[in-house]
Amino acid sequence: MPTPSISLRKHIRWPPAPASEPTSTLVLTSQTSHFVDIRLLKPQPDNDSPSSRSLEVLDWAFAGTSSTTPSHPSNPESPAHTVWTHLIDSHTPSAPDTVQDEGDIFPQPNLDSLETGSMINPATGQMAAYEELWRDLKIPCSLQCSAVLETRNKDSEKGERGMIVRVGGWCQGIVTDANGRCTIERWMFVGSDGGEMDSSEEHEADAWVGDWRRVARLGDANLPCVFTFNETDMREGNEVKGTNGRWAVIESSSW
Description:
Helices cover about 0% and strands about 50% of the residues. By secondary structure, it is mostly beta strands. The chain is globular, with a radius of gyration of 18 Å. The mean pLDDT is about 90.
């Protein structure tokens, strides 16, 4: 079974342009390969930067499941290949499964991972080759757990789709509705040894629950991320009610 991961993007590159990182991008992947990927534009040193509470800060957010084909045993230097199936997507809320998202993964000497492939370049609207450099953050021994919540009303008339993933000292959630409205949250456990992003990449905390701080919230819907903070509540099949319907625990694991 896959190992849960907390992946921080270090840069993106659209060859032949140089590498850059205009966002704070974090991907949480659970033991059952459910993931939430949230990409927030970093504040810019000018007067035209959107408010950190505005949805204009959201570059892209999506969630779903992933599957990886490992490198071929006869050729250890060949890349692994990963396909990310979008079940929720801020860009295509009514048809998230139409997004093509896959890439080859090349391990780097410093344990980072270089992902290469093709996807829509938002600057041009055209398919283009890309490179993304990822670093997996350490999960402290005291926080070696993962949990996944999913909306139970995703096929209702409201058309709501939602997923929350917690891995170690990080939790992220996304929900979209039939009108294309999107809400996201990102939480961090304070003191997650080795698990913090650079402070320059974080938005100011706007809420605290115990030792957890919410470092990003955009949108108006309710996301019950705090439910994942109490591990005794994280039993598969348990449900919690949010303002936008019921959420069910579909995964709870520790190692």
